Amino acid sequence: MSTPHLQGQKGDYAPVVLMPGDPLRAKFIAETYLENPKCVNEIRGMLGYTGTYQGIPVSVQGSGMGIPSIGIYSYELYHFFDVKSIIRIGTAGGIAPEVKLRDVILGQASCTNSNFAMQYRLSGTYAPIASFRLLKTASETAEKLNIPVKTGNLFCSDMFYDDANSLEEWAKMHVLGIEMESAALYMNAARAGKEALCICTVSDCPLRHEFTSAEERQTGFTNMMKLALETAVNL
Ligand code: HPA
Hints:
By secondary structure, the protein is of the alpha/beta class. The chain has six helices and ten strands.
């Protein structure tokens, strides 16, 4: 049964899906790391693949950028394809002073300026959090692989170009990084009774005007992809 945005049939996705924002990164991960990768989605060029890693089924599906985009794809994966766990692998801007370029962040929770939670008609502010099982597994896997990680809060923003310039205030609250997808992913997972985790590589530190080169980003990404894949098969 295909959906408005995913052409796959039930069973085309593994119970665990890695979600990079960039569909070409999904293709790269599938073709580099998965055994027998099969393309399961091409609609809108938002490529998705399923294969195995160490013999265990794993899917990789692009999410696109921002809350509305990952909101659509994660909703359809959870509700129409029996996906249980989604691990977003993306980039973040480093905010807190101790966060450095190329660091890997495990998003324990996600603050947001988005109104995504409004749909749930709650009588207070919802706190989107990662699945503890995924977070614990990723944290332990990182230790085993000798990949240093920083675990804490993310700020999921609706704006990349933001007139409010609020990053210094978020830094005061010790938020580690800014990205644009985690809050919707965590809320969709919670509402569906499923699991989500966001792993980010720090690609830039906007407050310090520091940026990685394309080559430097690749090293950080390699650690993050290894961590995500090893987490996926150790759940
Ligand atoms: N802002 C929002 N998202 C991002 C950033 C940023 O500075 N860097 C990487 N993803």
